[in-house]
Write a structure and sequence with these properties.
With 279 residues, this protein is an alpha/beta fold. It has a single domain, classed as TIM Barrel, CATH 3.20.20.70. Helix 5 links the parallel strand 10 and strand 11. Helix 2 runs parallel beside helix 3. Bound molecules: zinc ion.
């Protein structure tokens, strides 16, 4: 693993549940648009694609058919990027709907949101213990690695509890999501604190939402973590300047990683670092 210690996994989250064409006309929404954008980001050097889909109106969705179409387009190409699908997709979706895409389509990773929270001061992002206790074993059963998303410190303690109970198995992979209203703010101090809570031998990445994007990207690199970019988290390339595509974010972070004397992991190196099942 020694030669992998200098490698940084670069995840691109092209779409997410919320950004619309009104906020940035370049956000990809249809299966074709998402697949083409993932392909372009892979060509530009991204290691992992975190995937959401939208319905025909462009709204948040957990439609199995849309996931099937999107992954189908990507898999029909020579693209080797690691596929990571959401199990949330938005708010209020039924448990089975949330689990069907990874169960049937078997991406190598899927998100595991490790607790509930008030969401943007107007609703609840529910991840009931009943759901999390089903989700871990269901992912294990099909060989899908959970990406444990952490919005607040209590969610790390939930993960430790599920590790002890066998709902999750080591080594864990954490994704710290900072700057979502209702969760922890996107500060370097919060990231240092969260990192201090996770078990030795875990892997982790982090990203900040909106204006927290660059501070957390630089802090994650400095602390030895992996990084994530993309329009799910931030539609601006700079203050007042909309990103032209997700590729712009991938290219910038590749430059930053290089200047930092590290290298972006290839998809296969990401597979090795994360202990993913063979593709
Ligand atoms: Zn997501």
């Amino acid at each position: 693993m020694a030669e992998l210690s200098n490698k940084v996994i670069l995840t691109v989250a092209t779409t997410g549940a919320w950004p619309s064409k009104n906020e940035n006309p370049a956000v990809p929404l249809t299966p074709r648009e998402i697949a083409d954008e993932v392909y372009a980001c892979w060509k530009a050097g991204a290691s992992v694609a975190h995937i959401h889909v939208r319905d025909d109106e462009g709204k948040a969705s957990m439609s199995y058919e849309k996931f099937k179409e999107t992954l189908g387009y990507i898999r029909a190409t020579d693209c080797t990027i690691v596929l990571n699908t959401t199990t949330s997709g938005g708010l209020g979706f039924d448990d089975d709907l949330r689990m069907k895409p990874f169960r049937e389509l078997k991406p190598e990773m899927a998100s595991y949101d490790c607790g509930s929270m008030n969401w943007l001061h107007n609703s609840v992002f529910e991840n009931h213990p009943r759901f999390l206790e089903k989700l871990g074993p269901a992912m294990l059963e099909v060989g899908v690695k959970p990406e444990i998303e952490i919005f607040d410190a209590g969610m790390v303690y939930n993960a430790l509890y599920y590790l002890k109970k066998g709902v999750l198995t080591a080594p864990l992979h954490f994704q710290f999501v900072l700057g979502a209203a209702g969760g922890m703010a996107a500060t370097v101090e919060n990231l240092v604190f969260l990192k201090s809570l996770i078990p030795a031998g875990s892997t982790w990445g982090a990203f900040g939402i909106g204006s927290g994007h660059l501070p957390i990207l630089y802090a994650a690199l400095a602390l030895g973590g992996h990084i994530r970019v993309g329009m799910e988290d931030n539609v601006y390339y700079a203050k007042g300047v909309l990103a032209k595509s997700n590729v712009e974010f991938v290219e910038r972070s590749k430059r930053i990683v290089k200047e930092f004397n590290k290298e972006v992991a290839t998809p296969d190196e990401a597979r090795e670092i994360l202990g993913l099942r063979a593709r």
